[in-house]
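Extended Data, record Putative G-protein coupled receptor B0563.6
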Amino acid sequence: MLADDDSHNRYDSGALDDTFSLFDDKQLVSILKHGNNQSLKINELLRTLEDWRNRYNITVIKECDRSDYCSGEFRDVILGYNAIHGYVSLLICLFGSLANVFNVAVLTRRDLAAAPINRLLKWLAVADVFVMMEYVPFSIYRYMLLPRQEERPYAWAVYMLFHMHFTQLFHTASILLTLSLAIWRYIAIKYPSYGPSLCTDRRCSLAIFLSFLLPPILCIPSYFVFTIHEEVSFDKTASKIASKVYYVDSNYEGVLYQLNFWVHAVFIKLLPCVILTIISAWLIRVLYRANSRKKMLKGYNACPASSVVATNGNVFTRKLTKRSKAEKRTDRTTKMLVAVLLLFLLTEFPQGILGLMSGALGRCFFKRCYDLFGELMDALALLNGAINFILYCSMSRQFRTTFGQLIRNRCTATPRASSHTELQTTYV
């Protein structure tokens, strides 16, 4: 180690000559002589400095380039995905936007809109469709058009700032709506006798209102942390024309930076994920017990269509068909919501952990890891919002039936009716 330290203190005569030859540069002498001249253009000075950097092979090492966070072959795999993220996200957004429009159209039908849980699902689809429709122009410009041009105009930085806050607000609203959905289902199953009095339409409207009101309040720190920054860049031609580059980055100093990460990671991501994990585990246990109970009843019940009940000496039969259908419908709804919750946890938990580690480990972890996984986390979040339509269709018979009727009504030409009764029959 001592030998290495001594070798670092030795001077190379060649390097020394190159250093002193810097001051023989005619451009440098001219700039030093006329440095106080107001007519000297800043582009000329910057171009000269860039020539020096290339001539003497000066490498600019950024602050976090030597960090070991998220290094190795796995980093190359993620970077390989980031190269195609624009096309993947565009396909997901186009499909997801159409799917969520279908969700809203089906869930607003008369036979489905009355249920409070369907109202929550409807507004969840509204929040997701806003995120995906806004992500489409961002994906086209950011990943397909912007890499081909050297300039990063100020208008692009303004749009990036808008995109960042817009998607964060509506995605946070979808998180809160998913949390409300889980709590709603938990109350309905855990306390069935108190469910109608607790899960009212008024409280459902209040939950939806708070889901869209709280995100702008929770995201206040990010409004001040992320701002537009400015740099000077040179083109790759021989003229080396300097141009200003605008980009969005965070201000890493101050209390707001740490506060933003803790609020985003803990209150927006991890806390809802922990609550959803507990509720999902409880719902899965309920489904497991229901399946076990059905297997036992199948083994012991010799006459599944009816049961014999004796009351005060009178014997009568009670049909079990209606009760069985209600139980099956409840189980299907619970399974569908469990699938929605588990898909949500799969996409949000990793992002919450990355945000928490960024707040704890500092700027270099954020630059090396959070930025690295940003595109992948975006794709998972978009996929989570887009796949709900498939879950509804595969696990809800009522949703499939209503969607089929909606498509048939739109695709089939409605004949003119000669009476009011005929009109009603056509549209029902």
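Summary. The chain has one domain: 73-300+326-401.
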